[in-house]
Design a protein that fits this description.
The chain has about 375 residues and is α+β, with helices and mostly antiparallel strands. It has 13 helices and 19 strands. The chain is elongated, with a radius of gyration of 25 Å. The structure holds guanosine-5'-diphosphate (GDP) and manganese (II) ion. The site of manganese (II) ion (MN) has 2 residues, from loops.
Length: about 375
């Protein structure tokens, strides 16, 4: 789960990181009121789950409250990487001497949290990692000990020469690690971590992604979810109790069980196709779940065929067949549907489906090949 900059800043502040104050506005009037309360220069910042807001025109400096109003008016409703801006953060502007990058993320290869820091921070850190990897210092944290003080110092030492700045940055890096762990995050990032002309280190941007599996034991973090900023299909899937991940292909997949769903996607690839999604409907034959699954799959305009792959163990295939028939009566579906059912009561299930006019199979190879063909046709 991604959270907004202003929410990540709240968490960073709670961990002791120096973060300038700020307030959220949903209208230009509110932005103006906040700006005049702060007085002086402010920054108006789009709150969307996307990087590169600065480049897209979603971060604007304003000298006066009237100017802040104008920027808020332009930024609210703007589209940044396909996401509509519904809120802006209004924050007093800082004088910037230098911009550094500090980030920590779960690195799957090392199976541990890994820090990356660079003195070349600001808006183009992805570019730096490609063109000048030596400008980035990395450190993998041993989860048994956490981030040790000398490691935080070693990272900070890469950013600055001045001992005062190194000391402040070491503290920020340690606090960032604490916030990352306490939040159940998979990624936490400050870009830029600035120094001011008077020699202070501050975080003026904040980004954090939370591991979905950490949410159930952190209700205060889970409550930061902003469904209006997420793809509607993922919100719908979550509400219906389905595990769904959207992908780029055109074969919509509806499978019971995560392992079978993965195997199905592999087989789609094997037969030269590409899955449009991962979807595990679980052990349920409940027509409501099948309806929700079909609505989610068909809301993706790339989907050209729909593939059901059901293995009936405790789940009875005839129940699932009835669920599919019922679901397709309730909603109008354009792409062709092919179904593979095997296991408990499969004979009965195949009869039900054939009677309702579906192509039903018991072989996984045959149905996947068919679904790939139909998607290409
Ligand atoms: P991003 O583009 O989505 O990463 O948004 P940032 O919050 O990182 O802002 C992008 C850039 O805007 C920063 O790298 C700064 O150069 C500039 N910026 C943001 N806030 C301030 C501020 O308070 N003062 C000044 N002078 N520049 C700022
Ligand atoms: Mn940034």
């Amino acid at each position: 789960m991604d959270i907004h900059e202003y929410q990540a800043k709240e968490r960073f502040r709670a961990a002791g990181i120096p973060v300038p104050p700020g307030e959220i506005a949903t209208t230009a009037d509110e932005a103006e009121a906040i700006a005049s309360k702060y007085g002086g220069m402010v920054v108006v910042k789009a709150q969307v789950h996307s990087g590169g807001r600065g480049k897209a025109g979603g971060v604007k400096l304003a000298k006066t409250a009237a100017e802040a109003r104008e920027h808020a008016f332009n930024i609210l409703g703007m589209e940044i990487n396909g996401l509509t801006v519904q809120k802006v953060l209004v924050t007093p502007a800082e004088d910037i001497a230098t911009e550094a990058y500090v980030g920590v993320l779960v690195d799957r290869k090392n199976q541990a949290a890994t820090f990356m820091v660079s003195a070349a921070g600001g808006v183009d850190i992805e570019e730096v990692s490609h063109s000048n990897p030596d400008a980035i210092r990395k450190l993998t944290v041993d989860p048994r000990y956490g981030l040790l003080p000398h490691q935080a110092f070693w990272l900070a030492n890469f950013l600055y020469d001045d001992p005062g700045l190194i000391k402040q940055a070491s503290k920020v890096i340690a606090q960032l690690y604490d916030s990352f762990v306490e939040s159940g995050a998979s990624m936490a990032e400050i870009n830029p971590l600035i120094t001011t002309p008077s020699g202070e280190v501050k975080a003026i941007d904040a980004k954090m992604s939370i591991d979905d599996s950490e949410l159930f034991r952190r209700p205060e973090v889970a409550s930061m979810r902003d469904s209006s900023s997420e793809p509607p299909s993922e919100t719908k899937a979550r509400d219906a109790g389905l595990s769904y991940v959207k992908l780029d292909g055109n074969v919509g997949c509806c499978v019971n069980g995560a392992g079978l769903a993965m195997a199905t996607m592999d087989l789609v690839k094997y037969y030269g196709g590409a899955p449009a999604n991962f979807l595990d409907i679980g052990g349920s034959s409940n027509p409501d779940k099948v309806v929700a699954a079909l609505e989610i799959i068909t809301s993706d305009p790339n989907v050209k065929s729909i593939l059901f792959n059901i293995f009936g163990g405790i789940t009875r295939c005839d129940d699932v067949a009835n669920g599919i028939v019922e679901a397709t009566r309730r909603i109008d579906i354009k792409p062709p549907i092919v179904i593979r059912l095997t296991g408990t009561n499969e004979d009965l299930a195949l009869e039900i489906l054939k009677e309702a006019g579906f192509s039903a199979y018991t072989s996984m190879d045959a149905v996947v090949e068919k679904a790939v063909q139909l998607a290409k046709a």
